[in-house]
Design goal:
heterodimer, A: 135 residues, mainly alpha, 6 helices, 65% helix, 0% strand, elongated, B: 154 residues, 7 helices, 60% helix
């Protein structure tokens, strides 16, 4: 009667082990990827805030498909002007209303939470950028 | 057991009567103002009419209320939707938005209509006339593009 325990138990242990290694790797990938962020040609100050709060998801190799679809900074210069203007407005609005970064992400990455000063800077930048495009 | 249902029904009924004493403000401003999308842009009349039918209940100063819109708690829900809708875009004050604000909204209009995220699915069910067919979607996007080019001056 002991055998069934092995039949179920051993594959189960292998599965658990494999899955935890998989999870471990995944979180390693993530912490590596935070170091490699695309340079966007934005002011250094803004790039820093985006690196810290946005680019884990909103780049071509970001971790969320939905996020990429909404806004992909890797392809920023391929957006049409009108889409850029719409996105710039959304960036300031979503950060200002603290909809972004998502609460769940902030819980896992407490340092990603932008402070009021950073949000103000981003919004000033989005307005300037918009003005430039409209000229 | 019978008594239980009777009491429950009575409580619900009284509750329903009770909430009617908490009315909300109605969104019934002027329909044709100078700053309205229809007046302030070069939108073709048929498209303007379609936008009015499909969007103005939540995105203007003038909501056409159905009969059940006067009954709480439906009236509360409508109030919330209209407040949120007008915050995103209020076609009655289109002319008072900045040029870049208009460009941004034009882009969103084409996108949301073409992706069928607007009108809201629940609204579409209750108002079948609000649904955009493919031609209408196409024409809206052609127009938003034209208007964008006009605003951006190139």
């Amino acid at each position: 009667m002991k055998r069934p325990i092995y039949i179920i138990g051993i594959p189960f242990l292998i599965f658990v082990l494999g899955f935890s290694i998989h999870l471990g790797n995944r979180s390693n990938d993530r912490s590596d990827s935070t170091d490699i962020k695309p340079a966007l040609g934005f002011p250094e100050e803004i790039q820093k805030i985006l690196n810290n709060s946005c680019l884990d998801c909103h780049t071509a190799d970001g971790m969320s498909e939905d996020a990429k679809e909404e806004l992909n900074f890797t392809d920023w210069y391929e957006y049409e002007d009108s889409e850029k203007i719409s996105l710039l407005e959304d960036i300031c609005e979503e950060m200002g209303e603290r909809e972004m970064p998502p609460r769940k992400y902030i819980n896992n990455h407490p340092d990603s939470k932008p402070d009021d000063e950073q949000i103000k800077k981003v919004c000033e930048w989005t307005k300037e950028e918009t003005k430039k495009i409209m000229e | 057991m019978k008594r239980f249902w009777k009491i429950l029904f009575l409580i619900l009924f009284l509750g329903f009567i009770g909430v009617q004493f908490f009315p909300v403000e109605k969104n019934s401003g002027e329909l044709f103002s100078e700053t309205d999308l229809i007046q302030a842009t070069t939108i073709p009349p048929d498209l303007g009419e379609k936008i009015m039918t499909s969007c103005y209940d939540c995105h203007s100063n003038s909501t056409k209320y159905p009969w059940y819109g006067y009954v709480a708690p439906v009236s509360w829900m409508i109030y919330d939707h209209v407040t949120m809708g007008k915050e995103k875009v209020n076609f009655s004050i289109w002319g008072s938005y900045t040029k870049s604000g208009q460009v941004s909204l034009l882009f969103d209009m084409c996108k949301e209509i073409a992706e069928e995220t607007m009108p809201l699915p629940g609204y579409q069910k209750l108002h079948p006339e609000s649904v955009f067919n493919n031609d209408e979607m196409f024409n809206i996007c052609v127009w938003t593009e034209e208007e964008t080019i006009r605003l951006m001056g190139n």
